[in-house]
Amino acid sequence: QVQLVESGGGLVQAGGSLRLSCLASGHTFSSYTMGWFRQAPGKEREFVGGISASGRSTYYPDSVKGRFTISRDNAKNTVNLQMNSLKPEDTAVYYCAAKSGLLFIRQSASDFGSWGQGTQVTVSS
């Protein structure tokens, strides 16, 4: 398994931007599909995007499409989540996750076997 550590969360006003990063340990990072999820209090963990192992494919749900962008640097074992035009409803703990196998349009948390500890994102209105 791969160990993951997120960073970059914080407090931002509505309409602002944040960039989250996830650093992975291990020598096989480039073989993993990576995903970002978020979980607000009292809600289920929600998929907010994923990127294939090569970085050539990305998928986003409609709730964040056009506002969030995922990128990865396999040489640096990092995956990033750029979040623009943030809304108060984006407030949640954000997690990066890793899975073996392909990236699909719809992913659930149970598809991913490795998780970071999460980083809080708070968007004020």
Topology overview:
Blueprint: E1 3-7, E2 10-13, E3 18-25, E4 33-39, E5 46-51, E6 58-59, E7 68-73, E8 78-83, E9 92-99, E10 114-115, E11 119-124
Parallel strand pairs: 2-11
Antiparallel strand pairs: 1-3, 3-8, 4-5, 4-9, 5-6, 7-8, 9-10, 9-11
Q: Please provide the count of β strands.
A: 11
Strand content: over 45%
Please bin the fraction of helical residues. Answer: under 10%
Average pLDDT works out at 96
Task: Summarize the structure in words.
- With 125 residues, the chain is an all-beta fold.
- 0% of the residues lie in helices and 48% in strands.
- The protein contains no helices and eleven strands.
- β4 and β5 form a beta hairpin.
Essential attributes:
mainly beta, globular, four-stranded antiparallel β-sheet, seven-stranded mixed β-sheet, 125 residues, 11 strands
Structure at a glance:
The protein is 0% helix and 48% strand. Strand 4 and strand 5 form a beta hairpin.
